[in-house]
Amino acid sequence: MRDDPREVTMHGLQNRTALVIGAGTAGDGIGNGRAIAIEFARRGASVIAVDLCAESAERTAAMILAEGGACAAFGADAASAADMATVVGDTVARFGRIDILVNNVGIVPLGGPIELSEQDWDRAFAVNVKSAFLACKYVLPHMLKQGRGSIVNVSSVASIRSPATTYCAYTASKSAMNGLSHSVAVQYAGRGIRSNVLLLGMIDTPLVREQLGATSPEGVEALLAARNRMAPTGAMGTVWEAAAAAAFLASDDAAYINGAELAVDAGLHKRVGMFPPAAR
């Protein structure tokens, strides 16, 4: 893949079917969801790439197929019960099972309680939390029949530590997603199903660059440099590092890891105040 410098020789997801919700990215860029889908396919999984934008999901599938992997694409609204029931039903009809579920959708409306509209608050919870609930609702019965399954919920360090940016709906909704994941983990642990959370920190994605360009008069490069300074290592993480963590949690290498929150942030969540004064 163009911007992935690693040589991936690890397998471990062979004969697994992975449903990745939020597997698209704007244009030909590679964000977290697309990288996760590609990484899973490289490790042997058959991937179902789902995105609100069908064309974007199809682009992810095309990238995987070009590498010789297996992937089908669906356009669907993750916050719609009807759409998710259809996606899960079609996936099982085509592949016979769902071994892995990745919930990777999220929106970030800016503003605190005063500035944020009620509609934006409700939409954040529908996209960031309800989507994961609906995916679990329709996927879990199939995992229970199989007697096994792994759920990876993509959250944020902002869900456990107050961020420098004011986005209360994102912080609250991702915290709720964490709670949903914990509940599922405990309820189904005895049935062979695991549910874990990825807490992503400063990851360099096309969406981040797009949002920075739209909101800053300083220019994208200045804000990217500021985000790099926020990371304890002095550089943001890559989508491939996030994807590798997701693949680990999905695999049997993490068979005894359940109800966990794995921070992929170079230690940012351990820094007092999270952000140094120079990065604010």
Structure, described:
This protein has 280 residues and is an alpha/beta fold. It has a single domain (17-262, 275-279), classed as NAD(P)-binding Rossmann-like Domain (Rossmann fold, 3-Layer(aba) Sandwich), CATH 3.40.50.720. It is 44% helix and 15% strand. The protein contains 8 helices and 7 strands. A 7-stranded parallel beta sheet has the order 3-2-1-4-5-6-7, with helices on both faces. Helix 5 links the parallel strand 5 and strand 6 (193-200). The model is unreliable at 276-280 (pLDDT under 50).
Biggest beta sheet summary: 7 strands, parallel
Looking at how many chains there are and whether they match, the oligomeric state comes to: single chain
* CATH topology term: Rossmann fold
CATH class: Alpha Beta
Stretches where pLDDT is under 50 for at least 5 consecutive residues are 276-280
Rounded radius of gyration (Å)? 18 Å
Overall helicity: 40-55%
Shape: globular
Distance between the termini: 34 Å
Going across the major beta sheet, what is the strand order? 3-2-1-4-5-6-7
What's the CATH superfamily, by name?
A: NAD(P)-binding Rossmann-like Domain
Strand content: 5-15%
Instruction: Please indicate the count of domains.
Output: 1
Number of helices: 8
In CATH terms, what is the architecture?
A: 3-Layer(aba) Sandwich
- By helix and strand content, what is the structural category? alpha/beta
The count of strands amounts to 7
Mean pLDDT: 88
Helix/strand order: EHEHEHEHEHEHHHE
